């Protein structure tokens, strides 16, 4: 469901007076849900098709320019923010045109590297577009356009049509990216426009940079308090690690091992010797500045 690494200012905030303030405000926005609430990764066979020999390249430059202009990477919280309120009418049109252009791509004729970057960019661009279409909102969950009486958020709405197939956010994440690539780092790539989410990177994904961005996003999130932190005798984790535990090995022990693989040395040592309980939380407030 990004950005450059948090600078010293961001890290100092969380370990200084900013952390208590963050935690107190976070109490108003937490959402704790059982792991069973997460959709299962069930592949959509239609999108499994690909052409290994394809040299077709998708132009993500419009999205890249948008990100570089509106994603704030130096916020003192260490969480990337999007300047939704500052997006100009011309840039709105450019974003709409980019999303429309992506829907005209014959995705099944691309190679796998192009496909992976395509789906991540489409998911993130659609997310920003949906927020802008309903802005101002306090949380993306307030954009209740998914089908069903008890639906929350936009994730079930069929917002794009590609090769004759109507596609939703849930389809992209749970029926394409997760099951077809089986790469748990996509959770650090797709962005849900929330503070609790891994950051929206300030550049578009491409076959050339996808691996580096996935690694960067993994390290950033694991080493930020909203991803993981030790609080007394508890290891406080993002609900992502509960909702999608199956993608991180299926157990709390495997989740901790995953965290260790991306944690900075001091944090990794603490995780190695940690014997307490795990708890989960998520901040659904909009990731505006």
The largest sheet has its strands arranged as 5-6-7
Number of domains: 1
Beta-strand content estimate: 5-15%
| Overall form | globular
Low-confidence stretches: 1-17, 19-36
Mean pLDDT, nearest integer? 90
Radius of gyration, in Å, reads 18 Å
Order of helices and strands: HHHEEHHEEHHEEHHHE
Q: In total, how many beta strands? A: 7
Q: CA-to-CA gap between the ends?
A: 20 Å
Summing up helix and strand content along with how strands pair, one would put the structural category as mainly alpha
Please provide a written account of the structure.
The chain is mainly alpha-helical. The protein has one domain (22-281). It has helices at residues 8-15, 18-26, 61-70, 89-102, 112-134, 169-181, 210-222, 240-243, 252-262, 265-273, and strands at residues 71-72, 81-82, 158-162, 165-168, 228-231, 234-238, 277-281. It has a 3-stranded mixed β-sheet. A hairpin with a 2-residue loop joins strand 5 and strand 6. The radius of gyration is 18 Å and the shape is globular. 38% of the residues are buried.
